[in-house]
Amino acid sequence: MAVVSLRVSLPWSSTGSPYGLPDSLQNVRFPPQLSLIEAERQRHVTRKLLGHLERGVLVRANREGISSRGCARAVCSGAGMGGLGPHYSPGGPCKLERDAVVRFLTTGRFFQALQLYQEGQLPAPDPMVTLCFGEELHDLSTAKSKLIIVQYTAVISLDH
């Protein structure tokens, strides 16, 4: 049984490692127990998906925004993506190639969308990014039926 580690960098941590990664990472291990999944088919599919994600995923939130780097190949898609529309973030599913960085929310673009919202040109931007691994996620209303969901809300302030 594979145990996947999602490494989340803390926005206040330093960047002293030789790979440009923060020295302080929070490990989030999942799932707690596959035996908690009642449906046999869902348990089998989840076990297979976890095998693909075994090397981990790094989700990083810092002053620049929210990004992810796959330590193994994976497919993820998202809904929300900062509420900035398809021209601000990748639309549809994207492949996380090993060691490739995918940026899901950029602070600069978030502030652009916030300005447009204040001018009445866009709806309010949403600082939450929802990632779904192994399946497509086009709408947050279907999130509860997905196997692996990661939600991250950016804390953005004007004094950055």
Overall description:
- The protein is globular.
- The protein has a single domain (4-153), classed as Tumour Suppressor Smad4 (Sandwich), CATH 2.60.200.
- The strands form two sheets. A five-stranded mixed sheet has the order 2-1-3-4-7. Strands 6-5-8-9 form a four-stranded antiparallel sheet.
- Strand 3 (57-62) and strand 4 form a beta hairpin.
- It has helices at residues 40-52, 107-118, and strands at 4-9, 25-30, 57-62, 65-70, 74-79, 94-96, 101-106, 128-133, 148-153.
- The chain starts with a strand and ends in a 7-residue tail after the last strand.
- Helices cover 16% and strands 32% of the residues.
- The longest helix is centred in the first third of the chain and has 13 residues, at 40-52.
- The protein has two helices and nine strands; from the N terminus they run ββαβββββαββ.
- It has 160 residues and is α+β, with helices and mostly antiparallel strands.
Overall shape: globular
Query: Which CATH architecture?
Result: Sandwich
Average residue-wise pLDDT: 69
The residue fraction in helices comes out at: 10-25%
CATH topology annotation:
Tumour Suppressor Smad4
Biggest sheet overview: 5 strands, mixed
